[in-house]
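Notes to self after the Tuesday call (sharing in case useful).
The group wants a holo model before anyone commits to mutagenesis around the pocket. I volunteered. Ligand is D-glutamic acid. Logging inputs and output together so the record is complete.
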Amino acid sequence: MSWKAIGVFDSGVGGLTVLKEIVRALPQEDTVYLGDTARVPYGTKSPETVVRYSHQIAEFLVSRDIKLLVVACNTASAVALDSLKESFSIPIVGVIEPGARRAVAVTRSGKVAVIGTEGTVKSSAYTKAIKRLAPEVQVVSRACPLFVPLAEEGWVDNEVARLTARTYLQGLTDEGIDTLVLGCTHYPLLKPVIAEVMGPSVTLVDSAEETARTIAEILSESSLLRPAAEQGNHHYFVTDIPAGFIRVGNRFLGGRLGDVYQVSLDAYHAEKGGAEDGA
Ligand code: DGL
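Result:
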């Protein structure tokens, strides 16, 4: 029996932190990852643009006959998940709902903070998801855009990282929060510095871990889980030349990437459009 792969996409390299958790939870599954490195970042772009990019990528991955699509990018999950779900019939999992669920389960004080890109924070997607689950929980959110380049540069444990984290986060500790959601693919790399600034009374919630659990549940419930004795293969696509992705990616994945292939989504869609016109 042939088993279909899990498709995962992100604006670039960040989604590898989500892939890492998926592979940890489900080592038997094949995965196909697409990082939109030619158009990264998504966090500063308008929702309309991110929705358009997300649909193009989803079409590409769905054409590879995947069984489930993971929107690993928080920004894309925040603005594009609903319309993706309307357009495609396979199960689609974003990172916001799982992160929100975990935050609600963890908080004791009922005060939760969410950090993410400008796009994610502006969308209020985490706040809405948390409030849907627990209307009484108070949510404060803050954009921390400089964490993205710091994580990619590998500056996660130096004075610049510490000062940046203190500048962004210190105010949050005065708000009485006891739970902080890392609402961006890059932030798990800065976990030690963030934990240091927030102190021991604040629990950090990593959306990636909870997303992997959600995927395992969905596949199991729909009998799409590959037998545990299998060993998954992993394929990587990027939209710009692979060099930078490979250099930074090994660190984000916490292991070695396999072969990385460049794909042109424009060419893919032009070809597809042409084929459809001629059909
Ligand atoms: N992957 C994005 C996210 O999780 C961060 C990088 C970007 O802005 O594209 O929101």
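Two things stood out.
DSSP finds twelve helices and ten strands in the chain.
The chain has two domains: 5-94+210-271, 97-207.
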